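Notes from the 1:1 (GR / supervisor)

We went over the backlog. Supervisor wanted to see one worked example end to end before approving the batch request, so GR pasted a single chain during the call. The sequence is below; no edits were made to it. Supervisor asked that the structure be written out right there so they could see what the output format looks like.
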Amino acid sequence: MGHAGRAAGTLFLVGTPIGNLADMTERAQDTLESVDVVAAEDTRRTRALMVALGKGVRPRLVSFHDANERERTGRLLSELQAGRDVALVSDAGMPGLSDPGFRLVRACIDAGIDVRVVPGPSAVVSALVVSGLPSDRFAFEGFLPRRGGERRTRLEALSKEARTMVFFESPRRLVSTLRAMSDAWGDRRVAVARELTKLYEEVVRGAVSEVLTRFEEREPRGEIVVVVEGAPAVSTRSVAELAGDAARLVAGGMRAREAARAVARDHGASANEVYRAMLDRGRVDHSRRGDAT
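Structure output shown during the call:
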């Protein structure tokens, strides 16, 4: 694609398979063969992909990942300004989506360099459409913070998000993340998509409590996307009023945490806010707090 005399090259954002090699488009293959440089999150994986497709590896491969993105952006920009075409790929799916690439795209746009997309598979969209949850409006949140306190803060900030939400998660943290979602949002509907397009593809759907029980009993493996329904319509009732409703459920025998989740779920409120209001007003018998949950 590079041509002598052209002022600048073109940056191609190329989507690659998230599992099944048959999902690699002909245009994506042709692009990777034709450019001068392929910037890859992992050059070994990209080289193996090209070999598996029987296309060989003609372009020069350079690494482009989180650790070197800032430094490599300048180098790739120089390549493009010299008239060489560059393709950017991630390990799987679309580059720049919770993967390196944003800085390079922005730098190219600011420099007046042409940026084109070669669409391909996306774990985000694939999980969303197979989840069975509303897909007309959604929010992609990437990975949640690893630390418990930061994760709770992020989930609390999303407690009133009405759109369906999509998250990436590691199998090691899936159970703790589902527990944190249950604490923050109550028993919303969720879909956990695992190993999409691969041999052991699986989508587990249901209330958070049901899906959590499933993965507590069987350790999850593979690449995971979590899709969660958005908050229900916001109630006009105050948190204090909802705390009173929850206190009445506690008086009927329910544990405080469970009561706060139940009321919050029905009124589109934060379970943590309802629970804290119960504590502040002395409406929780310490023997029935249920903090172990």
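Supervisor's comment: The chain has three domains: 10-121, 124-228, 239-288.
Batch request approved.
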